[in-house]
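quick one: NAP bound model?
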Amino acid sequence: MKAIISPEPLAISSSRALVDVELPVPVPGPRDVLVEVRAVSVNPADAKVRKRTRPPGSSPVVLGWDAAGVVVRVGNDASRFSVGDEVYFAGDLTRPGANSQFCLVDERIVGPKPKSLDFAEAAAMPLTGLTVYEALFERMHVGRGDASLGKSLLVVGGAGGVGSMAIQVAKTATRATVLATASREESKEWCRKLGADHVLDHRCELPSQLSDLGLSSVDFILCTADTDPYFDLLTTLVAPQGVIAFIVPSTKPVDMAPLHTKSASVVWELMFTRPRFQTSDMAEQGRILEELGRSIDAGHIRTTMRDRRGPISARTLREAHAQIESGTTIGKIVLEGWS
Ligand SMILES: NC(=O)c1ccc[n+]([C@@H]2O[C@H](COP(=O)([O-])OP(=O)(O)OC[C@H]3O[C@@H](n4cnc5c(N)ncnc54)[C@H](OP(=O)(O)O)[C@@H]3O)[C@@H](O)[C@H]2O)c1
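yep, here:
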């Protein structure tokens, strides 16, 4: 099968950062499905793993943890899907990714592809969808429906892949007021189109922009940007008994003290935790993808794909990684088809 590998950690400007190769088609383990990959989206995780230092002698890495395709084989103990089913999934960072014509994934973390989306539109959704559902409803416990009436949610980095999903999921599943941040006219417009009630500029002072809206604090904050530059600011903006979710690891010690008087919390979300540790509830990810699919097919959530490219190759993936690394992507970049 065709596959694209990262042979060694290299800057994306190197023509060897990603390379086209032929690999054997993998054989499913007991709970796996083998998926013929039709489309993949590109996430910052791909670039981070590509650049990460590896132990000496380690194998080249197949990246790509966001895909849609068709099931072509099922493992002996797999029962959720049959050959021919159309699926979407983010997968498991500890296994080879989906930048290959065929990819193995544990059936418990796979969802049926939303019927109203084509493969490329669907490939944009799983990784960010899982991140947002887990962050909002499992880590932060934002109330669904009327339970969040009168509450506010701030999405820092509203136009990126995660932010674009967070705005839509929050507007669909909660009654919280949704504030999003963006710094350019086109990214601000994107946040408004996705349903944000208010758009703030993260290049300008956030406290004064909140007070212009009559708010002194925010109940829930989902920070999709780097944690380090935002940690102290967000601990001052969070409301008494509020919750802040970070999705990017901090690289230095953090000061939790300001949260004490407010009984406020900080939570972490990593959507790869469940597959990585094979947690007993890892099938929740399959359930979340089913729920997301129903919301999409009901017309409540639309694809975040904004940039459709192809075919999937080392060259097109290098271009997509370069765009992702610029930190200016709006929505998702998706690659579809094989040459
Ligand atoms: N823990 C997890 O499970 C998980 C899951 C997914 C992603 N992540 C991580 O979360 C981060 C975001 O992922 P993503 O896919 O949303 O990335 P992305 O799509 O590349 O995000 C691009 C967006 O970031 C915004 N941005 C740039 N600098 C910013 C700043 N200083 N403050 C606020 N926003 C800023 C930009 O908005 P403007 O152009 O308007 O400035 C742009 O639209 C990455 O580090 C990724 O690795 C973690």
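The domain at 2-125+304-336 is CATH 3.90.180.10 (Quinone Oxidoreductase; Chain A, domain 1).
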